[in-house]
Amino acid sequence: MKGQLRRKAQREKFARRVVLLSQEMDAGLQAWQLRQQEKLQEEERKHKNALKRKGAAPQTSLPSQ
After folding, report:
1. How far apart are the first and last CA of the chain?
2. pTM here?
């Protein structure tokens, strides 16, 4: 009977560790995804706000008088 209780306690301890590690992995994955999304948004913002070359501006002709 003693061995059975010991094995049950070991299984419960192992199950708690598995749940804890799973939760840590989920939290880490969410944090990583958030950082990736923020990095992507920052790159898009930099690209949008980048200085344009003078030659790249569209040339509009003014009507001559």
Report:
1. 107
2. 0.60
